[in-house]
Amino acid sequence: ATQWHQFEGLQYEIGQLRRHDAIAGFVITELTDAYWEANGLLDVLRGPKVFHDRLPAIVSSDVVHADVPKRDFFGGERLVADLSLAAYGPPSEGGEVRWSVETDGALTLEGGIPIGNWPEAGTVPVGPLEITLPDVARVADARLRLSAVEGDGRVRAEDELRLAVLPASA
After folding, report:
1. Which three-class secondary structure string do you get for the chain?
2. What's the rounded Cα separation, in Å, for the pair 34 and 122?
3. How confident is the model at residue 33, as a pLDDT?
4. Checking DSSP bridges between strand 140-150 and strand 95-103, what pairing results, if any?
């Protein structure tokens, strides 16, 4: 749980950095955990952490990011997120950011937001994502999944955010 919490912190921090073209780079200063600190990219024995396979989603040359003000919602509540695309790969025309919401592992919502031209060595806002989350009978684990897809269908960036959805009656 500590490692996943650390990943969510990294995801937020790096996402905020990647949204601003004026910030041309960043450094993660701790490679491994040390004693009571759990903020390295590897554990204290230099082994991979539980989020190791998710790191490329936040540090690759192309990244799709959702800036959400919170991660806990009631059923029927609006999720509003500013989407941005940072790209340092080859230029591309067209495409979309595809999004989906899974609640307790089941697909509940999906859609897409068009991308005009991909940024060349920079970041562009894609637009706001505004969706109404489904109501649930009990507290549910949800995932907001994002994919930045070129016009030819090639996926260049993917990410997901963990959300909690509580029954509206709560």
Report:
1. CHHHHHHHHHHHHHHHHHCCCCCCCCCCCCCECECCECCCCECCCCCECCCHHHHHHHHCCCEEEEECCCCEEECCCEEEEEEEEEECCCCCECEEEEEEEEECCEEEEEEEEECCECCCCEEEEEEEEEEECCCCCCCEEEEEEEEEEECCCCEEEEEEEEEEEECCCC
2. 34
3. 87
4. antiparallel
**Interval 102-128: pLDDT, tens:** 999 999 999 999 998 888 888 999 999
Query: For residue 20, what are its two tokens?
Result: 């601003």
pTM of the model: 0.89
Do the Cβ atoms of 130 and 78 come closer than 8 Å? yes
Residue 110 CB contacts under 8 Å (≥ 6 apart), including other chains: 98, 99, 100, 101
Q: What is the Cα–Cα distance from 80 to 72, expressed in whole angstroms?
A: 12
Band of residue 22 on the pLDDT scale cut at 50, 70, 90: confident
For the residues 95-107, what does the mean pLDDT come to?
95
Task: Round to whole Å and give the CA distance between 66 and 88.
Answer: 18
